[in-house]
Amino acid sequence: xxxxxxxxxPCGSGQKYKKCHGAPGxxxxxxxxxxxxxxxxxxxxxxxxxxxxxxNAGEFVEAERLYEELLSVHPTNADVLHNLGLVALQLGHADxxxxxxxxxxxxxxxxxxxxxGLGSALVLLxxxxxxxxLLAPLIERGLDLAGRRNLSIALTRSGQPGAAQRVxxxxxxxxxxxxxxxxxxxxxxxxxxxxxxxxxERVLSLRPDDATVWSNRLLMAQYDExxxxxxxxxxxxxxxxxxxxxxxxxxxxxxxxxxxxxxLRLGVVSADLGEHPVGYLALPWLQALDASKFELxxxxxxxxxxxxxxxxxxxxxxxxxxxxxxxDALLAKVREDQVDVLIDLSGHTAGNRLxxxxxxxxxxxxSLLGYPATTGLRAIDLRISDAWIxxxxxxxxxxxxxxxxxxVFRYAPPEQAPLPAEPPLLRIGRPSFGVFxxxxxxxxxxxxxxxxxxxxxxTARFVLKAxxxxxxxxQSRITEALGREGIAADRLVFLPWSDHxxxxxxxxxxxxxxxxxxFNLAGNTCEALWMGVPVLSLAGNRPAGRMGRSLLxxxxxxxxxxxxxxxxxxxxxxLLADPSRLADLRRRMRDRLHAxxxxxxxxxxxxxxDVIRRxxxxxxxxxxxxxxxxHHVLHVGCGHPExxxxxxxxxxxxxxxxxxxxxxxxxxxxxASIEDLAPVPSHHADALYSSHNVEHLFPSQVPKxxxxxxxxxKPGGFALITLPDLQSxxxxxxxxxxxxxxxxxxxxxxxxxxxxxxxxxxVESGNPFMLHKTGFTADTLAQSLRDxxxxxxxxxxxxxxxxxxxxxxxxxxxx
Length: 815
What we know:
Number of strands: 22
Structural class: alpha/beta
Strand order of the largest sheet: 3-2-1-4-5-6-7
CATH class of the domain at 631-807: Alpha Beta
Oligomer: single chain
């Protein structure tokens, strides 16, 4: 950077540059060969704006570097401290993030926005009570929508979904997608399916490609007893079609060694490998996997600093924290690691990365354990289940289903669990039923069945434990619902959530546990059995409602899996009829579990390993000749050479990039206009990639350009084209959002106006070629490709862009 001679010298002397380090014969500035080092002094606003752009574009490491440069010169600037703290949080540096965010608050204590930022960090770090203490007083100072969302999340996670719902409903936000997404999550936790459904549908009308909202919507649907299995399958199928788009049809080859019998690299993607139900259910078989046959790579989407996570880390050849990686970056990482089989342990639960699976991150992809239903993705090759959860005579879902002979559940009991105690029936002389679990599963159907059991045993009390039951509002909902079924309020005992040891100790207050419906419990059922408490489960109409039977069959307690309410009542009465037998059962329960498959991981690991081996062999057999050779992708309109411009499927281990651009200054392989690609030989490339080029042509030029794309491809080659989606722009305009930012690009915020006409700053900088001269909808782009000779054309809409795929026929029959 050239320094103006009349500017203050960057060395900090207070003199003008021309009289200090710029004077004739003066020593050069230290580090003057690195121009960036002085921008913090001379152009702090411009440097801050660049850092913010990098930050918004997800380039966190580069943004951090720029903020650090500013901080070295402006150590008490509240905005720099605040943004640097947010970047640190996004990079997973929690302690540093909190120090920086607190420093920003200390530097400008009157600014509510900085306090709200610190509150948002506390929410992300699950320090919810501290977040509430910080954010709640800010409501009177005009806490913004983002702050209200974070406060509502903290309230919900602290067992106050009613209070959270009131915070959100006080705010009008018709077109604020984040508002409706948060409201949907809160209403799910409060068991308000109707409002949750309306909120999620509102979000998806604004952001139809939001995979996180889709997953929350689908998980909530599993709790909603109003939905039948065919409706659930349809919802999941719609998700898959929307999120996968054209990607499953793109023949991206893999560089993996095709040897059938070699040691396989097994990748596991999960947020829950720690002290979480999935952690306790996954540990037995992951510990038992044959390390000579499988090399374990874990992609952890959430950091859990607990002893259970340390056990998983000890099993892994590689443990990668990926919560800060974008979907593109995680996809590229998995492909770079040459994972052979990638296992999803989340399904549609929190922290999932299903969009990465949707784009085929590994040759074989498997869904297991974390979600008891179809993911909706065709790119998942196998869903591991069993015949109790997914009976062979019922539809299984989008993915092929493999049913393990001895059940899909295994359990690693917590090492510090208290010993089972005498049943309360003997201690207090009164039977006690109980339900411990996620309050969202305490639905109307379950309450009716529980009430029937309580009416059949009129002396019994009912112990309910859930985080949301810390709130009187939720206790009242349960009390009123059971009251309508004839159950008096004085029979109910409500317990709030607690730490794990206290939680396990609370099972000592229950003689018989009752399962939830239509979504059964899993981790809580295992805990109850380990604490010596029988569990009665009533089967539901969906896979999630048959998990209880699978667990009980595996544990050796088949009779406790009930087909109807009459069986449920009969089993409850039988268990309570002989208190001494109940006490003996409680004492011997752990021995019986040790003798069952539930605690044994070796057989499960062997059977799962065999399934994976067969899937791998099948994939190897299906690979075409020449799939391991180097392929060539013609990157038209490539611009300056930068990593990450090609989609991750164009793996550098498999693809050589041939760069095409009209500007010789970017040093392309071919200097050519996309209108004709004249210097590029015919039948030259296996693939062609064009990102936001075609819209810069006049309509009359488009057919010629697409025909040129067709000409340079080899027979069977494909073109992958992306450009603005005019339908998305039109929808935004109809919402009155012509100039409202729709998304953040590396160049800055993009509006509907930009989608139609061009990104204005590019044109204003003196580049008229960047003007948009034509536009497309999905249908018109597909027809244009067919007219140019492409076949098997697919076009999908994704995040305000169209993505089109077309193949050149093996034999061209055009005249």
